[in-house]
Design a protein that fits this description.
By secondary structure, the protein is mainly β. The protein folds into three domains: 180 residues, Jelly Rolls; 99 residues, Immunoglobulins (Immunoglobulin-like, Sandwich); 104 residues, Lamin Tail domain (Immunoglobulin-like). Helix content is 3%, strand content 42%. Strands 1, 2, 3, 5, 6, 9, 12 and 14 form an eight-stranded antiparallel beta sheet that branches. Strands 4, 7, 8, 10, 11 and 13 form a six-stranded antiparallel beta sheet that branches. Strands 18-17-20-21 form a four-stranded antiparallel beta sheet, with no helix packed on it. Strand 10 and strand 11 form a beta hairpin.
Length: 412
């Protein structure tokens, strides 16, 4: 049951829409997309002492002193380009460094909150902030199950710290936050575009999208093979193919809030930076994102599912478990080794499959019973309907996905 009130949702939307009317510059951002920080945070250990890895991270901090991360499947860390809490059995805390707002007006921060699993009233995400070293102020809190949303909070002061506190108590519960962004207006400058995202959609294409700033300025797009970019010089134009001084290659100026980057290499990371550019050819400070093209997907299909198996097919233990059937139409065997299967598209690496082979033209059943061993996944299927996906060894490339609605017992 959702504890987050309708009034709070309406207020968040009103505040977000009002503040987004101002031209906004990104002052501070963490989107957890950097490949170098994947897995960073705290991971449980049977000794009861969590393993910390925050090497190289200086812009945010964690505290799990009140949590009980006692298994390697318990964590408070970056997972799949999100920050995630799994089975913490106590409060975990994430907070930013001090962020200086002194040069800006109309300041605000936003944060994306989401979850996966079935939660109880004791499970929560709470977002606070402090201004100039003062007491914590609650921005938003959600308990139990909730629908993913973005919260926007107006702030004012000189130094802000954003704090996220979470707690859950099961390995099937995932609390997540992402895109922690602090924005403000800087007088006399060009404001950045907002909501910039890069998304791989095939083995050779990454789509870029954004929202223009409050002045509807066009956007200069650049890419690089590493997250290293220079700065465009005011008064200078950069046609497609030209170099940005200090790093990056221009993809040209665009006014459509969408750009498809095509003819790319397979299974490769690409990095992007975009700048707003006004009619006087003055540039904003720029925003960045990255994405990977898909690897060459295997020729496998989700052929059939049964989400309410009560009396049809038994597994090797004699249990009537939910199942997913995978079909190999190829003329050679295909191994499932290190592929991933999931019922949560925000967590494509939810379960890694073992080294089992499917014969040419053959089928294999994957049991969805929550066991988390071999061909038995760590999740069950939802008889009310859900989405499932089979992903490549990179945990990123979709091989096949399937969406089903409400199911009838013993009917596949």
């Amino acid at each position: 049951m959702k504890k987050f009130t309708v009034l709070a949702i309406i207020m968040a939307l009103v505040l977000g829409n009002t503040l987004n009317g101002f031209g906004q510059t990104t002052i501070w951002e963490e989107n957890f997309n950097d490949p170098g920080i994947q897995g960073k945070g705290a991971t449980g250990d049977p000794s009861g002492i969590p393993v910390f890895d925050t090497t190289g991270i200086t812009n945010w901090f964690i505290n799990v002193d009140s949590a009980h991360l006692t298994a390697t499947s318990d964590w408070f860390r970056v997972e799949n380009q999100l920050f995630e809490t799994r089975d913490s059995d106590g409060e975990c805390i994430w907070n930013t460094e001090q962020i200086n707002l002194s040069a800006y007006t109309n300041t605000q921060f936003s944060i994306d909150l989401s979850e996966s699993g079935t939660f109880e009233p004791a499970d929560y995400i709470k977002v606070y902030y402090t201004i100039d070293g003062g007491p914590e102020t609650l921005a938003v809190e959600v308990y139990d199950d909730f629908t993913a949303f973005t919260h926007t909070e107006p702030i004012s002061g000189t130094l802000v710290v954003i704090i996220v506190k979470t707690n859950n108590n099961a390995g099937t519960e995932y609390l997540r936050f992402d895109n922690v962004i602090v924005q403000g207006s800087l007088p006399g400058t060009v404001d950045n575009p907002t909501n910039f995202e890069a998304n791989g959609i095939s083995t050779s294409q990454i789509d870029l999208q954004w929202i223009e700033n409050g002045d509807n300025d066009n956007v200069l797009i650049s890419w690089n093979s590493s997250n290293s970019f220079g700065t465009p010089v005011d008064g200078t134009s950069y046609p497609s193919g030209s170099s940005i001084p200090g790093g990056g290659t221009s993809l040209g100026v665009d006014d459509d809030e969408f750009f498809p980057h095509t003819s790319l290499n397979i299974d490769t990371w690409y990095y992007y930076k975009i700048w707003s550019v006004n009619a006087s050819t003055q540039y904003s400070t720029g925003v960045v994102d990255s994405a990977k093209t898909y690897m060459d997907a295997l020729n496998l299909y989700i052929n059939e599912i049964m989400a309410l198996n009560t009396s049809t097919i038994q597994d090797e233990n004699g249990d009537y478990d939910d199942w997913i059937e995978i079909y190999n139409p190829a003329v050679t065997p295909i191994s499932l080794n290190n592929l991933y299967i999931t019922d949560d598209f925000n967590n494509p690496t939810k379960y890694q499959l073992p080294d089992s082979s499917i014969a040419p033209g053959g089928f294999i059943l994957i049991w969805c019973d929550g066991d988390g061993v071999g061909l038995h996944t760590n999740f069950n299927l939802n008889g009310a309907g859900e989405m499932i996906g089979l992903y490549g060894t990179d945990g990123y490339t979709p091989i096949d996905t399937y969406t089903f609605g409400s199911q009838t017992p013993d009917v596949s």
